[in-house]
Amino acid sequence: MLRTLTATRYVMPLREGGSLPAIVEADDDGLYVLKFRASGQGAKALIAELISGEIARAFGLLVPEIVLVEVDAALGRNEPDYEIRELLTKSAGINLALDYLPGSITFDPKANGSIDPLLASKIVWLDAFTTNVDRTARNANMLMWHKNLWLIDHGASLYFHHQWSGELEKSKSPFAQVKDHVLLKAASALREANVMLRPLVTKELLEGIVDQIPESWLEPGSGFENVRSHRAAYVRYLLERVKAADLFLSEAENARAKLV
Which of 214, 223, 243 has its CA nearest to residue 50? Predict the structure, then answer.
């Protein structure tokens, strides 16, 4: 179950992120990288971050702890930067954050040496499954921390939910964008990863993850009768998506064959 914290101090913005995330201190005295509900793609990016990040964790991959964070509009009243102050004000309520990993560095495939083929294959499989378009050489969205590889920033995954029409047909996508994956060349154990990860995607797992989405993020006007049917739609899509594993596995293998 995700913990819910309260932001007590705005520490600094992380301007390298397009959605202007920030480091904040919470009421447990910890530091977190906060993703704002009012930025970029809004609540949908936070939903994608939560679902894909927790699926990755269920796969045994390293993801900083994901927490829900209550932001008071007053948090930004003394912030001199108008853009940040407005973002804080509009994001009052429940937001999402990841545990801050002090001293971590951005993963660089050239600087960080070889990566275990099975680990690389699991990450490629995860990103093909969740249709994560944002794990490229230009923007790896991975950190090295204590000699381990950590996955961050899954807000660009599950892009089907920006337009729900025909979502079950979209679940059968082979995900051609896998050709740009930063770890594809190293992913020589895709078949093994498929055998290991595919059975882990169960209805029970998905329901447990999706049930943790705050109701306030499941905005009205998405075409669903109620919050319950909105949650069920995510589970239904992901169960259909895993049935298409042979399609996105073949796409990844074919794309990799052109690199090696």
Answer: 214
Looking only at the bridges linking them, the beta strands covering 66-71 and 93-99 are antiparallel
The partner residues of 4 in beta bridges, in order of sequence, read: 68
pLDDT tens profile 42-86: 999 999 999 999 999 999 999 999 999 999 988 877 778 888 889
The strand pairing partners of 150, in sequence order, are: 143
Residue with tokens 């729900």: 164
Quote the pTM value: 0.96
Under 8 Å between Cβ of 100 and 23: yes
Q: Could you report how far apart the first and last alpha carbons of the chain are, in Å?
A: 42
151 close to 120: Cβ distance less than 8 angstroms: no
Question: Within 10 Å of residue 11's Cβ, how many Cβ atoms?
Answer: 14
Q: Is the pLDDT of residue 159 over 90?
A: yes
Q: How far apart (Å, rounded) are the C-alpha atoms in residues 190 and 192?
A: 5
Rounded CA separation 85/102 (Å) = 25
Secondary-structure percent of the chain, ordered helix, strand, coil, rounded to 5: 40, 15, 40
